[in-house]
């Protein structure tokens, strides 16, 4: 038995075969056999082999009469091996003279199924850096590996640095290798056969030992069919088919093995094979054939896999341009790659591993695209001669301009950083002083870090009117307008060309100087105006005036002339040549610093704490007045100030992961939409809290509230409460612009116009193909991830049947049946669904109607149940019906007995059964727990309500509801004696109970608070 069997694979290697054979003949170890398999070469390979081996009986030459591919060549050769160990050698490589001798010593001492040795890499057209990296990676020490770890170290994705799977870089016990090949496919396998063979071998191995210091295998890197030579889309399609065949073969082996660790490693193998295939798409397919090659990738690997790999290229290239200093950000190739990736459509209802991996990759890639886009824009910002900074602490609409540049301000940047904004906490800054200095932190940052010819400042609500048109101003000298949209940009010249023509040639531009005597109130001078300000302290103005006089005596007359004069400009808005701006800052900030060091603001209110910002408005006027008095030579201009009342972002809300990927951290997103007004916030918060308390933490919930008037205070309270759920993010969207011009009246007193907002979801959340829409009068006890992931096919939505409506259909008068068939035009009236809980297939709904089309339908509504009727009429036949427990309506005013019992037997039975353990309780109708604590399921509601910051507000509403109810009852029975109108109840607490001593002082008998506490007590105990 020879010590080694060397299986040499040969196909069309006429120029290399001789050297390979000679390297074997020159081995210092003579005890080996070489099995050379020629795979029906069409050149002179066989002749070279025969000539080199004809006098050497250590060589056995096997010739295939039909080309079978490398896998079957190796399989054939291994089956003929008789040596103690077997080595696989590619015919275009060779061995160093002492390689077999050194390797045998290591094999004999290792006592392992596999010995992984090192290689010496020779560059064949690749760069030295690439050659060195390849050699270093393949020669990393592997040590001793046993059992399932042999496979895991090569293919498991949990491993940090995985080993290579080169079957030619390992020596094997011959019986072990023959057993492994005997379990391999008998099919022709190409391109990824190395990976497949290594997978099977490693899965069967009991041990592997590293001998990476033995590097006598000489590998020629760049020869053969690998490399970067261009291929056609058709040829790539063949490659894709080959890779898929190898993946399928490995999958068959893994499933046959039944071993969990083999099945797990197979997933790693599969992903890596497709990654290598996609690399050919990226490097070897020309741009004009990439679309056709993409179709082949989808055909053989599936849409999720193909999309993930293309997004991987986007991620890698965008990351490079984001993070490498000195690399220009305007890289066209990355955007071309993104177009190819976007072309592969993967629906959101794909929930398998491939779908999850695709979404994670797309999320990261889009984030880096955003970063790249922002970096590119920031580079263009720096190139502008005029830079006007728009100070903002929240996301707002900003005109699409390279001159108007948004800056996120304040110490809160770290927690909620806007990647597309500049930041006042970068470079030299005083960002931490923003609560006191307001927009001045932007001015300080610009002073220290910006070098443009002009520097200017606006606010997210206030801009200059750069046109020559004069618009009507309010009593305070401002032009009032609504939103910052295209019309506003055109109206006020908020575009780069208009701004340039307006600014160039001037030294200082300010807002208009107004006569305070013309303003409302009695204050006619800046001094009087400041003194009249309710939340500011007059002594601060006096103090800063004295500081100016002390530090700059030549300004004393300007201080008094301004404070006792009548003209002033406001808002800290100005545009200056940089030299003038720098001189102003050198004058301003030391004054403010001295003021802050002397003033005691430790007990100031939030508004009073902003005193340095207020003082700066006055100080700028003093500086300006001094320049005018001393003939500074400025060419000046005054522009109107335009105040936008609704500066919030408009248009689409980008998927959360594109802006905050670190927040989501790889979890799959579930977008959940609610609609509410300010008055419904307590109930909305209770619903959201119940949802998150019971939702799977494996997901991240992008919660979007559609609204028009939710107050800042209520938003902050909601955000603070929901921070206890780190797998969620709360966002608000103002729908005012989208609904303007439409008549959204409803036909039910207990239905508000917010009910129509669900028709806006498909536009606002255009980045999502599936969205969960929930009413705000729910308690959610089930896991909404299960609801969101329901298999709804290409149906427009998923919902439960409406047991109330179906009960009305069966009423003897036939009115509801007539209405449903004629007015709604429903072919199957019993298909009517309840719209309080909806899984919306927004991708398909966009095809059905645009938002304007939906809103036109809504505006003409004369339906009983408004939007719900519209949805039923428009979506009929394309509805997936959910189990009844996902929308269990409570028994409002006895409707279960009065109406629900009329519903079809199957529907009513499902409703009844769902009441035992409802996943969602829906307080539909006029009877709500916060109005009547005796209503059905009220105790469940208050269990969640008491956790919210609005609990007391809900208690107050309940108390008011009780008082109103008592008044209504008194009015209804006004002809009855008063004593008989007062209901008599058995006392729950006796007169001498110690509890009375606690309750009576805080809730006296007869008060609303007393009635509320009693009502809640009954609700919590489950009493009616």
Strand count? 33
- Number of helical stretches of at least 4 residues: 42
User: Any idea of the CATH class of the domain at 660-941?
Assistant: Alpha Beta
Radius of gyration: 38 Å
CATH superfamily of the domain at 660-941: Spore Coat Polysaccharide Biosynthesis Protein SpsA, Chain A
Mean pLDDT: 88
CATH architecture of the domain at 660-941: Alpha-Beta Complex
CATH topology assignment of the domain at 660-941: Spore Coat Polysaccharide Biosynthesis Protein SpsA, Chain A
Portion in helices: 40-55%
The biggest sheet, with number of strands, parallel, antiparallel or mixed sense and barrel status, is: 8 strands, mixed
What structural class do helix, strand and pairing data support? Answer: alpha/beta
End-to-end separation in angstroms reads 93 Å
Global outline: globular
Low-confidence stretches: 972-1011, 1018-1024
Strand content: 15-25%
Going across the biggest sheet, name each strand in turn: 3-2-1-4-9-6-10-8
Keywords: Glycosyltransferase, Metal-binding, Transferase
GO molecular function, one term: metal ion binding
Domain DUF4422: 387-626
InterPro entries: DUF4422, Glyco_trans_2-like, Glyco_trans_8, Glycosyltrans_8_dom-fam, Nucleotide-diphossugar_trans
Structural account:
- It holds the Pfam family Glycos_transf_2.
- Among the domains are: 218 residues, Alpha-Beta Complex (Spore Coat Polysaccharide Biosynthesis Protein SpsA, Chain A); 216 residues, no CATH class; 282 residues, Spore Coat Polysaccharide Biosynthesis Protein SpsA, Chain A.
- It contains 42 helices and 33 strands.
- The strands form 7 sheets. It has an 8-stranded mixed sheet with strand order 3-2-1-4-9-6-10-8, with helices on both faces.
- Helix 1 runs parallel beside helix 2 and helix 9 packs parallel to helix 11.
- The radius of gyration is 38 Å and the shape is globular.
